[in-house]
Amino acid sequence: MSPVTLTLIGGPTALIEMGSFRLLTDPTFDPPGLYQEKPVRFEKTSGPAIPADAVGALDAILLSHDQHLDNLDKSGRALLPRAGATFTTLAGATRLGGNAIGLAPFETRELRRPDGGKLFVTATPARHGPVGIEPISGDVVGFLLGNDEPGDAVYVTGDTVWYEGIAEVAAVSHPRW
């Protein structure tokens, strides 16, 4: 298995180093404070363990969704252009533009590095709350990361609750997983 290092930065934000690849989940780097009171109160109580400018080079950002400040805040949004790609939902890619690549569940894209390394990024089903919440909360995805080695994969659930779509990820037979 490729070496995998996970560094928790805070909240949903983690740096994933998988082989030679560097990926960041749901970038949130704003300082603590009250950001929103309605319709849901959003108050961040602690800052990131690593500031955005210290994260270093990124091959990609894995963005479960772009609609909520607790998964993509202002500082995180400013970080998006620094990555080679931002993988997210189809609707999110349309809203974000730039380097954003929208993926439907079980759609796969190949990420390549100049050193010849390759990583497969597959969107996975996710749901942000109970059945029917999508018109309110928006769409969301998770990610499965793998290479050509069978069984060499990392699953990033994204901002989801448990539902039958999560079980589908385990049930899918794929040579890269």
List the helices and strands and how they pair.
Layout: E1 4-10, E2 13-18, E3 21-25, E4 33-36, E5 42-44, E6 58-62, H1 74-79, E7 83-88, H2 90-96, E8 100-102, E9 108-112, E10 118-125, H3 134-137, E11 141-146, E12 153-156, H4 164-171
Parallel strand pairs: 3-6, 6-7, 7-8
Antiparallel strand pairs: 1-2, 2-3, 4-5, 9-10, 10-11, 11-12
Characterise the protein shown here.
The protein is built from four helices and twelve strands, in the order ββββββαβαβββαββα. The chain is α/β, with parallel strands linked by helices. The chain has a single domain (4-171), classed as Ribonuclease Z/Hydroxyacylglutathione hydrolase-like (Metallo-beta-lactamase, Chain A), CATH 3.60.15.10. It has a six-stranded mixed sheet with strand order 1-2-3-6-7-8. The protein has a four-stranded antiparallel sheet with strand order 9-10-11-12, covered by helices on one side. It has a two-stranded antiparallel sheet with strand order 4-5.
